[in-house]
Each structure stands twice: as C-alpha cells, then as structure tokens.
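Weekly sync, protein design subgroup
Attendees: M.S., D.O., the rotation student, P.L. (late)

Item 1: inverse folding check
M.S. brought a backbone from last month's batch and wanted to see whether the design step gives back something sensible before we order anything. D.O. pointed out we never logged the input encoding, so this time it goes straight into the notes. Structure tokens as presented (218 positions):
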C-alpha cells in the first residue's frame, strides 16, 4: 500500500468524514486535492496582499509547480484550481505586477495583445503609444517564430536537428549542432555549432556547408 498520504489512500475507499483506524492511529477521511496541497505547501503571504510562490521559479520569474507528474506555471495552476478554466487564447495578467504571485484575485484573463499593452502602460506611456508598441512587438514575435519554424524545416530536410553530430569524410565528428536560426522566413539557414571536442568556442555554420559532410542524428 502506498504511504504517500493517509487520506489519499483512504479516500479511494471511504467517503469524506469517515473515521478509520490504521494500527494505533485513527484518521478522519478528507477529500484530497493534490493541486490544492501543492499550492498550500509552496505559497505564503508577503504582507502586501500578494500570495507568493515559494517553490522554484523559471527564468522569467514565474512559479513552477509539479503535480501528478505534470509541470505547470504556478499562477495558472492556482487560477484553474480556485477559479476555473482559462479560455483558449487568453493569458493571465498579474495586476499586482508580481510574476511570482499566485493569488487568483490578482490574476486577470486577457488576450496576448492586451497583456502586452498593459506591460507598456506600466512603463508610463499613453494607451495609444502602448498599442503601437504592442502591435510592433507581436508582429516581430510572429516573424521570428515563422523564421524559426522555417529554419527547423530546412535543417530537417537535410537530416539535421538540434543535437545532431556533423561528421567529415573520414566519419570523424566535427561539430555538434546546438541551435538553428534564420534571420527571416526564406533566408539562409544558419547552424549554431560547437566543435565535437567541446573545447573550442561555438561557431556559426551555414546549412549549405553542413551538407558537405555527413549528418549523424543522435
């Protein structure tokens, strides 16, 4: 029998509120919610009204929660658990401006455009200017994503992807591919590589040059 949580084991057999005895101990069965348990264990008040995530953070400063074998952003997990589903296409804006806050009252579902506009508004610009900046940024992001997809597709057609080893004519490993990029969709594809010996600094190699030698996908 699993020892993970006495109430978790019991609740699969007994209704909440039932008292059961295991050895010398008596338990009252409670309804176990692993999401609530994770949120409660890794959050705390900060005195300003925020409920801050005390677990690990990602590189952007958002909380990371692992529940039932899945990884979630903690603020999204909090909102979905305590309020309800986030409609497709919407993001959660931290109205308190704290990315590590998971208090549902500080999270508002908005579109990507509105979320970007609000970020510029908080820098003190007018609504009109914020919308101009948001439009330009989202257009740039879309173009960058399209260029990234194009680079991956072109490299894949040559049997190359991130992690691939490039060998020379003598079958000796020359480079390991650590990144793929193109300045725009349709532009020449570049490979970010490091020599296979891992001692020489990384370099940039164009896809045509990589085609000269044999790619060994591993």
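Designed sequence read out in the meeting:
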């Amino acid at each position: 029998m699993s020892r993970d949580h006495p109430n978790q084991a019991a609740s699969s057999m007994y209704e909440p509120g039932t008292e059961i005895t295991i050895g010398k101990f008596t338990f009252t069965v409670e309804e176990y919610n692993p999401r609530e348990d994770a949120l409660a264990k890794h959050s705390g008040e900060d005195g300003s009204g925020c409920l801050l995530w005390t677990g690990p953070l990602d590189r952007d400063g958002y909380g990371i929660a692992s529940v039932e074998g899945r990884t979630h952003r903690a603020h999204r997990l909090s909102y979905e658990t305590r309020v309800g589903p986030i409609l497709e296409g919407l993001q959660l804006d931290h109205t308190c401006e704290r990315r590590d806050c998971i208090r549902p009252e500080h999270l508002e579902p908005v579109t990507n455009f509105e979320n970007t506009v609000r970020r510029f508004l908080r820098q003190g610009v007018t609504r009109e200017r914020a919308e101009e900046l948001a439009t330009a940024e989202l257009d740039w992001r879309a173009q960058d994503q399209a260029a990234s997809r194009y680079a991956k597709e072109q490299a894949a057609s040559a049997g190359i992807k991130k992690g691939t080893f490039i060998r020379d004519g003598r079958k000796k490993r020359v480079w390991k591919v650590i990144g793929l990029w193109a300045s725009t969709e349709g532009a020449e594809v570049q490979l970010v590589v490091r020599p296979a010996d891992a001692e020489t600094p990384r370099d940039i190699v164009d896809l045509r040059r990589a085609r000269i030698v044999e790619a060994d996908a591993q």
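Discussion: The radius of gyration is 25 Å. The helical segments are 6-11, 34-41, 74-82, 112-121, 127-157, 207-212.
Action: P.L. to compare against the previous round before Friday.
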